[in-house]
Structures are given as structure tokens and as C-alpha cells.
Amino acid sequence: MGKTMLEVDHLKTKYITRFGENVFAVDGVSLKIEEGKSLGIAGESGCGKSTLALSLMGYYFAPLHYQSGTIKVDGVDITEMKPDEIRKKVLGNEIAYIPQAAMNALNPTQKIISFIEDVIRAHDPGASKKEIYDLARERFEILGLPESVLKKHAVELSGGMRQRTVIAISTILSPKVLIADEPSSALDVTSQKMVIKMLRNLMEKGFIKSMIFITHELPLLYNVTDEIMVMYAGQIVEHATAKEMVFDPLHPYSKGLMGSILVPEKGARDAKLTAIPGTPPNLKNPPKGCRFADRCRYAKPACMLHPIAESRLEDGRMYRCYLEEKELREVYQDE
């Protein structure tokens, strides 16, 4: 086993509405990621993926608030740090974040090198312009970005080039954990491929030690990550290897998620897409039992009554369901 870069234990974060209501978008999430490994997080829109990404950095601002749990980066619990300490010591250095629509994060009136100078000097005020330029040039060239990009404004770059530039800037300080939230969304297939290749290069060359890749596209995660967690209504409902999750999902929601998309494999021509009926629960007042029960065709009365604990198989695979593995496989086989 490698060194643990990020370890999260029963993390709970909430939104507080203007009416004072609590919305637990991240409810008891635990995960661990080791050096050299990548973890994918998948789920439908509104399940809490992006909130989890923000929460993992330990830097909160209204309406998002920390409730409980621990976030350890390289063994240090950042939930005990003050906001200014997290901003100066953790963000960028320890954890880097690529938000959704990152290609629009660059200031259109500022040259790329000026943006990089601001990022580096926020952590190292004494860095000279030459030192910063040399570091940026070397890093960009290694990642397949021409030096000329440094002297351009964001409006002079294509969408795919802007996205790759943001990724390069976000990882310029060689963080231990990179959190990428939908980094390939809104891009054409060719640009997506280049972004994925760039993220792999960052891992292979050691510029980032580990990565969390968030998306709603399970097949995409299969080509990028080692393990996948499926999130539903603020909770993790299954955690398995990428291969298991895509080709042998166990939880009924994971099964439905995979059934709603096509994976290029033998027999896919005759496969039929299936939709998951219903809508996710309101997290202002979540159900007492399984949060997926109202939409699950295998649900039993007991599923509605009590919180569903995590079940772990001998190989470490986790799923959150009232039914045992044998029961689930039997009902899937009978279909």
C-alpha cells in the first residue's frame, strides 16, 4: 500500500438557506486515496458531487458550512485549521481544485503569465518574475502547451486550450491532491481526450500525487481512475474498482445509472437504455431509511424504516443496501 494522501472520515457539510433550513448535501462521506492513485466520483446532477469537491478543501463560505468529520491531507487534519491558514498553506500547495466551467476562470484582460505570477506569489511573495516564468515555461512544455501561451490573453485561446491552461496553472505548485470537477465537460471529443491525457501526464510525472475526478459519465471514469464511488442524495452508495463499477455494478442505483448509458462493448448494438423513474429526495427533509428506496424496484418495507449501514465485501468493496450481495445478484439474474 502507498502513502495516504487524503483520508476523509464521516464528513458532513450543509447549506443553510435564507430561511434557516439545513440542507445536508454531503452526509457522512468517507474515502481514502493513496499516492499514485485516482478516484472517480459519479452521480446524477444534484447528488452532491460538486459540494463534496468544495468540502474536501476545508475552505468554507456561506451558504456552505462545515458540520462534522475529518479531512486529513498527508496526515494533517485541515478541519482544525483557520480559514487564513488553509488558504495560505493548503489550497494550491496541498490540494488543488479545478471547478466546473474552469475554462472561463481566467481574467480576459490579463496575460496567462500574469495570472501565474499572482498564483505563485500568493504562496511565495519573494519569487522573482524570471523564476516564475522559467517554472511556467518548463511546466507548460512538459504538459504539451507551447511557451507562446504564456504571453497570450485567455480570449486568444480556444476552449480546449483554456481548459488545459487552467489545469496547468492549478497544478503549478505540485499539489498532493488534485480535485477535478467535470474537467472535460463542454468540450468536444478531441479536446476531452487531450485533457484526459494531460491529467494522466500530471500523475505519471509526479506533478500531482493523487487525483479525484468528478463527473456524471461513468464510462469516462473507467478510462481515467482506479476506483469509483457512486454518490446519491449526499451519500456514497457504492465504492468499487473502476472495472467492477462499470461492468458489474452492485447497488440498484449504480445498476440503474449504468443501464441509462451505452458502453462500447460486444453486444452493445442490441442493448436498450433504461431510465430511473422518480426524482431524488429533498435533502431538507431526507427519508429515514434508504434514500433511493422510493425509486428502487427491489425495495422492501424495511428499506423505508431505518438508515441503511454500509456493507463491505471481503475484497473491500462497499455498498449501501438493505439487500445482501447474494439477493441482489439473484434479482439481477432473474431479469
Automatic annotation (TrEMBL):
UniProt protein name: Peptide/nickel transport system ATP-binding protein
Species the sequence originates in: Lacrimispora xylanisolvens
GO MF terms held by the record: ATP binding; ATP hydrolysis activity
SMART domains in alphabetical order: AAA (SM00382)
PROSITE patterns in the cross-refs: ABC_TRANSPORTER_2
Gene3D superfamilies with a match to the protein in the record: P-loop containing nucleotide triphosphate hydrolases
Keywords carried by this UniProt record: ATP-binding, Nucleotide-binding, Transport
Protein's UniProt keywords contain Nucleotide-binding: yes
Domain of life: Bacteria
InterPro entries in alphabetical order: AAA+_ATPase, ABC_transporter-like_ATP-bd, Oligopep_ABC_C, P-loop_NTPase
Keyword Nucleotide-binding appears in the UniProt entry: yes
An annotated GO BP: peptide transport
Residues covered by the ABC transporter domain: 11-258
